[in-house]
Amino acid sequence: MRLDPYxxxxxxxxxxxxxxxxxxxxxxxxxxxxxxxxxxxxxGGNVVILHEMKxxxxxxxxxxxxxxxxxxxxxxxxxxxxxxxQMRFRSLVEITEQEDILRAIITSAIEVHxxxxxxxxxxxxxxxxxxELTEKMAQDADFKAAFDALTPGRQRGYVLHISGAKxxxxxxxxxxxxxxRIMDGLGMHDR
Length: 191
What we know:
The protein is of the alpha+beta class. It has two domains: 4-118, Aspartate Aminotransferase, domain 1; 123-183, no CATH class. It has helices at residues 4-8, 14-24, 92-97, 99-115, 122-125, 131-139, 141-149, 152-163, 168-183; strands spanning 30-34, 37-42, 45-52, 57-61, 85-89. A five-stranded antiparallel beta sheet has the order 1-2-3-4-5. Helix 8 (152-163) packs antiparallel against helix 9 (168-183). The protein is elongated.
């Protein structure tokens, strides 16, 4: 298959990733490469992505917060995550022990996608812009227009990054550091 090279190059969890792949390919999901990772889609929509980290490998569910998880195995990948949830594994034994739960989660993820349910990104509407960013927008109309033209996710990324600085001078420095990227319509991690 097209993604075989990805799985051959897996460094820390090759057996685990291959087993998770085998399980996923039993479902009506299409295997694609997105964000340099194997992504499994249903009717063109992203459902789950396989990933390998330093300490674990796992499945990332795009609308994971909507998935039925009676066993509490899904975790948010970060403190600001609203939609995505992960199921993490450190060994083949863990995958085998949790296979029934894993299959139920995958089935639920597909059902959530089929139903068209959307995550209410409440925090996107309620972003609190740091004072330094608000001042920059007031002083520079082109900058404000460029920032407003960013996708909600890119805006959120910048706001969280800038707001994360404790000191005003650091917040200002972060705005200046990313000024050109914002003007070019790029998110913090876009290339």
